[in-house]
Amino acid sequence: MVSRAVIKFGGADLATGERTACAARLVADSTYKEKVVVVSAMGKTTDALVGTVNQLGGVIDEDYAEIVSMGERTSARVFCSALRAQGVKAEFIDPSSSNWPLITDSCFRDATPDEDQTRFRAKKYLAPILADGTVAVVCGFLGRDKDGRVTTLGRGGSDTTALLLANCLGADDIVLVKETLGVLSADPEVVPNARFLDTLDIREAFDLMQGGAKIVKPEALKYKLSNQRLRVVSFGCQSLAEGGTEITGSFNIDSAETETRMGLISINVICEVSSDNLREAFAALGDKPIYGVSSGKQSITIFTTNGDVNAVMNRLHNIAGIKAISHREKVAMLQISHPSFIDSPGGVARISSALSTAEINILEVTTSKATINVFIEENQLKNAKEAIRDAAEA
Fold first, then answer.
1. pLDDT band for position 263 (50/70/90)?
2. What DSSP string runs through 64-123?
3. Nearest one of 375, 366, 391 to 332, comparing CA atoms
4. N or C: lower Cβ tally within 10 Å for the chain?
5. Do residues 194 and 38 lie in contact, with contact meaning Cβ atoms separated by under 8 Å?
6. Nearest to 334 by CA among 385, 282, 291, 297
7. Helix, strand, coil: what percent of the chain each, to 5?
8. Greater confidence, 387 or 168?
9. Tell me, what's the pLDDT at 344?
10. Looking at the domain 4-248, which fold is it?
11. Three-class secondary structure of residue 200 per DSSP
């Protein structure tokens, strides 16, 4: 039996009393020994509260957080009552509680958790409740600063609550309950035949969510531990302990991940930057891998492996829409990845500055979500790795 789980329900799961009772039944019937339930505001409550605050005009951030928090605070009380109605011993925990765990800074609209304080309080206050056989029902999305004032964690903050508490408590399972079967290959409202995905690597999940998929707040994923099972399951599931999409792996938050690749070439294509020319250029590469693509006003640069370069260049040269081509050999790629690159400005600037200080010329920089690719001359790779070691840290 898995001993400890953190289970999070979204607002749509709790939109009515009937749905809340169904959610409580899922928790009551689950086989987890210890359970923390994180709840969002019921239905569209938060949207309504935010709309009201915006209509008032001039509301200070501290009041905004206090007002908007009422959605989750009400939801926690309702869910706790639903559990008790089914004979489950439960206790709601909200920011006014003396045993509230999640401490943040004083940015009331988009607070940053204090991980050390949250870990200390989760172990001191939540762990004993769980050991007593009580289900802890915790308000998602909310925090409390060192002065006891309510803060909010920004949109999707309930995901942050769930994954952070799971991290602090060393939970075995994290279950995020959604309206879909799990994670799909596309938005089913846009792509009707979107496929269900059994598993996603955490980096794939991060890029997918950061790109607009509204499944999990991408920044929350950094709290997942390597030995934890994280799943996105359907509200209509038969058991919280089974099924859904599993998100595997974890980020190394303490340092950026770096990878290198040598023996590359950069191919410069002078042409109109259009979908037709891009398609033709990629087709000319055949089965060669692509490590980076960038575009200028009238050019495309493609980074790929060396070998058979003459044949590739001849195929490119024969494309009607291409005006001229050139290539550079002995190129290396230095790839730096860290989830903080998304929400912490200056990642590219820090790396570029470090390389500039070391007098290393950058041929090209490409970025995608939490990854920065720097292309340099091959003989400068060793010095480049040393130069960016400190700059790449979060």
1. very high
2. HHHHHTHHHHHHHHHHHHHHHHTT--EEEE-TTSTT---BB-S-TTS--B-HHHHHHHII
3. 375
4. N
5. no
6. 385
7. 35, 30, 35
8. 168
9. 59
10. Carbamate kinase (3.40.1160)
11. strand
Phi, psi of 132 (to 5 degrees): -80, 0
Amino acid at 162: A
Q: How many of the other CB atoms lie within 10 Å of CB of 144? A: 23
**What local confidence, expressed as pLDDT, does residue 394 receive?**
43
pLDDT at 393 over 70: no
Architecture of domain 257-388: 2-Layer Sandwich (3.30)
First to last CA, the chain: 37
Q: How many Å separate Cα 317 from the centre of its chain?
A: 42
Characterize 355-365 residue by residue with b for buried, 16 or more Cβ atoms within 10 angstroms of its Cβ, and e for exposed: beeeebebbbb
Cα(43)–Cα(71) distance, integer angstroms: 9
User: Residue type at 208?
Assistant: L
- Maximum Cα interatomic distance, the chain, rounded to a whole number of Å: 75
Question: Whole-angstrom Cα distance, residue 236 to residue 22?
Answer: 9
| Distance separating alpha carbons of residues 292 and 148, to the nearest angstrom | 48
Domain boundaries, the chain: 4-248, 257-388
Residue 247: phi and psi, rounded to 5, are -100, 115
Q: In terms of C-beta density within 10 A (0-12 exposed, 13-18 middle, 19 or more buried), how is residue 225 classed?
A: middle
Nearest residue to 10 via CA among 34, 35, 42: 42
Residue closest to 390 by CA, chosen among 366, 363, 354: 354
Please indicate whether residue 194 or residue 342 has the higher confidence score (pLDDT).
194
C-alpha 246/C-alpha 255 separation (Å) is 25
**Looking at residues 301-322, what average pLDDT do you find?**
92
Per DSSP, the residues of 264-288 read EEEEEEEE---HHHHHHHHHHTTT-
Rounded CA separation 330/338 (Å): 27
Place of tokens 């050991």: 131
* pLDDT tens figures, 64-76: 999 999 999 999 9
Which amino acid, one-letter code, is at 243? Answer: G
Nearest Cα to Cα of residue 312 among 332, 329, 294, 295? 329
